[in-house]
Amino acid sequence: MGEKIPHWLDKQAFLNPEKTALETPEGSAYTFMELQEKSRQMAHYLIRMGVEEGDHIAFLSGNDIHFPVFIHAVSYIGAVVVLLNTRLEAPEISYQLQDADVSRLFVQSSFTDTALRAVENTEVEVVEFENVPPVSSPEGALKKEIDFDAPYTMMYTSGTTGKPKAVVHTYGNHWYSAAASALNLGLTPDDKWLICLPLFHVGGFSVLIKSMVYGMSVYLMDKFDENRFHEAVMNKRVTHASVVTVMLQRLLKRTGSSGYPDTFRCMLLGGGPVPAVLLKDCSAKGIPVFQTYGMTETSSQIATLSPASAFDKAGSAGKALSLADLWIDSAAPGEIGEIIVQGPMVSKGYYNRPPRQEAYIHTGDLGYQDADGFLYVVDRVKDMIISGGENVYPAEIESVLSEIPGIKEAGVTGRPDDRWGEVPVAFLVAEDQTLTDKAVHQYVEERMAKYKRPAAIYWVRELPRNASNKLLRRELLSLTGGENS
What we know:
Rossmann fold, alpha/beta
């Protein structure tokens, strides 16, 4: 058995019983003591149903206030919770239930129909969790400690190549991720972190763990909405928030000519490379954007720009957090290569897959470090385009396209080409319907080498994204229907 600490929710209920642990825009709220009571009640209910330590139970829910209640209940039993993406179809859920050896599927009632279709011809039981009956006579002892080596969650990777794999996170992975973030960003008694990312995704889930480790309040939104987000920052004393690029673009537009109050200290921006023009606009408005780099396998962020470097190193994801290590697999400093990471927040591997032998992992992401050691993420290895022997990075082209007035979103991918092997093509979402291909080509010609310029432009209503709003470049070509529009 590994290192143990007192159960983190019990500890916060003891240290900060009356402090708000959770609140929502709709007015629901729990103190740490109330959250403890409800989570322990849920745990006894799960035990009565037959859930035992080590069981794999799945959870299908949106960002509901019952979500943290359930995941803390699981920790009192020692079961492992498989967090399911609410955007999946029944066959995709069915695959994950079988792959993860799930015995029970707990669902938010709005997903019951999908869940029932997913468990057809299986022995998996479906249970709606919202209306848990009181347990008058608690059965079984609840855990009083957190074991860092014990598995806690399983989250499936996006599966852009091959079948999705379940990343197994231990309690220690989540705890060290939270601790490393606090050492970088700092911590005050007034911190309140807004969650608008999905809780089944590591970026949203990690904030629930931060709440337990820090004794921090969380402002939980059921989904991203720029108006509600703006209201929370302006009037609810939100200090931190985690977003991805497309969210920040909408927020920047919502702020108009103003910025945010001084009480707002951190816009943690993940999800890959960011258009330079967006960072410049945020800097002009004094919005503190800290780019971060991480993945499901690293339990969220593993490198983050520090507050002291936020403006001097705009565009960088910072340095590896104090508990982690990071380097580039390249021949010389400053060269682009694959990002390699290690640290106590890094998962030891995937369920039902051979265990990883090395302490480090190859991320599949490309980047470089400048002379000061700051990381710049360039692109995914699998998204890179090789055109005529030249490496072309979609994110670089997307950044330039996003500078064009009237372009709302840009996505770039490679298209097979008889002469060059591959050529980049662009998919654009426009706010200004008068924009033309000619205007875009002219803008790009003045700013990029010929081999980087899009060979074709497609105007689309929206870009394909996953539940965490990351751009799915591999799906862009399916929007063409085989013809340029």
